[in-house]
Amino acid sequence: LVGEHRSSGSHPPSVVVLAGGTGGAKLARGTLDIAGERLAVIANTADDVDVYGVRVSPDPDLVTYWLADLIDEDRGFGIAGDTDRVMRALRAAGHPAWFELGDRDLATCLLRSELLRAGARPTIAAARVAEAAGVVARVLPMSDEPVATFVRSGGRWLPFQEFMVVERASAPIEGVELRGAEGARPTEQVLAAIGSADAIVIGPSNPVTSIAPILSVDGMRDALARAAAPVVAVSPFVGGRALKGPTEAFCAHAGLEIGVAGIQRAYGELLDGVVADEPLEAASMPGVVADTLMDSPQRRRSLAAATLEFAASL
Ligand code: GDP
Asked: Measured over all CA atoms, what is the biggest interatomic distance in the chain, rounded to whole angstroms?
């Protein structure tokens, strides 16, 4: 059993998890219990935004906070117990503080931004952030080149964070563009992790705004298709619904069913199998039915273990 490597004395598996900042990040945390330092998370950077003079990289940072057990689980973002003195000071100064960043979260962004300004690649900056949080697994930006998600709403193209925060993701979605994807390449660290993986897991993240940007990086799909490891997706739909956020609206816009069929359609040929809490259409591809709600450390670990056992059986 994958989860019993310690008692059996064999190596833990090398696992790659593709993730946004919530569902995939939670599964990455469960996977950390099993794979330890042999876990590499490929995180979406198409939500990155420059604000207050720093580069915010929400998904890689959320993955780092989950892996470090620092995450503010109630809010679903930021660091538990963080303070907001800087945001309050900015507002008092009449500065629009539209993007909420806690004080320690801002320190993370300062660390990254200083490295980037000194010429470091985003991959190196993300590694420094993860190291500072005490994370032993690798948190890998999907690319060192910029890709940016834009959402068309009310006839205007908005950067993703503006759509999410200013429009509260409530306006109708009329289009999605992943700008820069054709000029972006997977990093050597991403390619090495994919090439040496025993299992590749597409986490239960938003297929349209978290996973599609990762897959849009030129060469990423090829690298995943060429990998010796099976590629398995975990559905973000629990009890037939997305748990929170605009996943359902983005899937509806993209013509994807709200359910495991939509996940299969989203990733198509790449997939060797699917994990969901609902049965698959008969014979469409291998699948396993599991409890996919990850509201506790035990459930995160169990879902990771079930996913890796399934992958190992393919
Ligand atoms: P973002 O980067 O913060 O937008 O978040 P992601 O794209 O990584 O994840 C959003 C998705 O996570 C939503 O579709 C949720 O349904 C899914 N999600 C959140 N918690 C869970 C969970 O416990 N289990 C599963 N299977 N999916 C979850």
From this structure: 61
- Give the tens place of pLDDT for each residue, 109-160: 999 999 999 999 999 999 999 999 999 999 999 999 999 999 999 999 999 9
Please list the residues that pair with 16 across neighbouring strands.
40, 200
pTM of the model: 0.96
Which residue has the least CA distance to atom 21 on ligand 1? 23
Radius of gyration of the chain (CA): 19
CA-based nearest residue to 116, from 107, 126, 125, 108: 125
Q: How far apart are CA 185 and CA 123, in angstroms?
A: 12
Which ligand 1 atom minimizes the distance to the CA of 21?
A: 2
pLDDT of residue 244: 86
Confidence of residue 11 (pLDDT cuts 50, 70, 90): confident
- What residues flank ligand 1, with Cβ below 6 Å? 19-26, 59, 204-206, 210, 234-236, 238, 242-243, 245, 247, 292-295
> Distance between CA atoms of 141 and 129, rounded to whole angstroms?
12
Strands 15-19 and 39-43: parallel
Q: Which of 18, 22, 61 is nearest to 194 (CA)?
A: 18
Element (H, E) at 242: strand 241-242
